[in-house]
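<discrete_fold_record>
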Amino acid sequence: MLDEELVIQTKITIQEIDPPIWRRLLLPVQMNLAQLHEVIQASFGWTDSHLHQFIIGGLVFGAPEFDEDHLEERTTFEATEVHLHDFDFYHVPNPQFLYEYDFGDGWIHLIDVEARIPRQQSRKYPICIAGARHCPPEDVGGAHGYAEFLTAWRDLDHKEHAQMRRWAGRAFEPETFNIDKTNKAIASALRKAKGGYRFRLED
């Protein structure tokens, strides 16, 4: 079967969070990594306010302009020039790769490639088919900070309860996941990105 007739089923899980926060996505293999970045941001509800990178086979992919001074030891390869079909997810048992968002908070997303399945002509891709829980608020301080935040957010008697509720906003609910809202966000993000990174179009 030709690549263009296939999609890959992935499960993306934010690491060090329990219960887990995850999304199951069906991705066309023609998608480039910048587009995948936009899909991950939209599917979890991140705001794309921080740096990111993909780590695949020991190589780093992302937006090279954010390391023009070569402060990192590894070269960052241009994400728009690399597509999912460029990687051999077929002959490796249980293929996985990483997506990191916000190098300060260090949100590591493990991307499990679960299966290759035939494309359905009646379905638009990419699409989220399942998931669980809301993503943490931005700048909450990573997994440890999120655990402390939830303790205060849930405990009416906690000295920081009111402050955390105001900071997170009324719409925040850690256990919610809305698949229809998620897929609308994905479609909107890709439309605005026009095949690359949205932030480059906004500059």
Remarks:
- The two ends are 40 Å apart (CA to CA).
